[in-house]
Amino acid sequence: MIELSNGHRLEFVAASGSLAFDGRGWPWEWPLRWVGLLDPHLFTIVVKTLFPDQWKGNLRWSHPWDVVKFISQEGNEINPLMALAIPRLIGGAINAIGLTNSGFDSWLERDHPIICRCEYKVVVSITEPDGRIKGCLEIVKRLNDLKNVVGVEYNASCPNIDPTLLENANMVIENCYAIKEVTALPVLLKLSFVQPYLQIARRLEGIIEAISINSVPWKVVFGDKPSPLAKYGGGGVSGRVAQPFTWKIVSELFRGANVPVIGPSIWEYDDIRRLKMLGASAYHFGTIFLPYPWKPTGYVKRWRRGQ
């Protein structure tokens, strides 16, 4: 567990976007919430990453499966119906959503009141295209006085938009310092396998309070094998198939930097124990919400019964 500077305890986290912008989950998950199979109150919820202004990205709500695919352990695309019928086929997912969002003002007007009414605890994830930071700083200043916001996550590692932040570690570090200067909220940083994460973490000790881990670029996981989302640049791989990469980050950060890390890529219940042994201080549920939105709630309840 991570005790943040404002007293909020971070243990089980719904990763950015897994429970949508308002914490209630996506509409197809609502029936599970109504009957208690999905309980957002069990998690610190990271809202889907916001920009200062609306960003179209790649997602089209009329055909979302164009930018999200289930994949096998070998990277082969799996038909969604077959994936649900034969769960063992799924190794994870690949997405090229590209941070589609309607912008901070829209979130503040539409989603934040729902968060307050439902009494969810949320971390607001933010970033900007091209590594710019001015708009993010304005968002952070406005977050300071919002109820139910327990932290801010700077997403410096999306594999599906401009690669500036992925390629410029100094910019990531400078931006985190700038964010910290304008907020009393705990600052979390979202990094990728392709960044010098250990170097970044060491230089941000005392500035950021936790590190979360993003999906892994397709090419890193599968090399020259053609991606199902090649027309979008390849996409980011997450879930069980990403574990060798994301869990390597957890282990190296635990041994080499004084910043707590949130363990990602949970697929099976025992993955929580495995991540704890690797040095994770809290636990992220992300892609597993897509095919099995009821499992994270079940895992957390089972874990707490066993403590």
TrEMBL record:
Q: Which cofactor does it need?
A: FMN
- Give TM regions: none
Q: Which GO terms describe its biological process?
A: 'de novo' UMP biosynthetic process
Keyword Transmembrane set for record? no
Q: Does the keyword Oxidoreductase apply?
A: yes
Q: Which SUPFAM superfamilies does this entry report, sorted A to Z?
A: FMN-linked oxidoreductases (SSF51395)
Q: Where is the Dihydroorotate dehydrogenase catalytic domain?
A: 88-288
The protein's UniProt keywords, in alphabetical order, are: Flavoprotein, FMN, Oxidoreductase, Pyrimidine biosynthesis
Q: Name one Pfam family in it.
A: DHO_dh
Q: Which GO terms describe its molecular function?
A: dihydroorotate dehydrogenase activity
Checking InterPro entries in the record gives: Aldolase_TIM, Dihydroorotate_DH_1_2, Dihydroorotate_DH_cat
Q: Which GO terms describe its cellular component?
A: cytoplasm
| Protein known as | Dihydroorotate dehydrogenase catalytic domain-containing protein
- Source organism: Candidatus Nealsonbacteria bacterium CG23_combo_of_CG06-09_8_20_14_all_39_25
| Upper lineage | Bacteria, Candidatus Nealsoniibacteriota
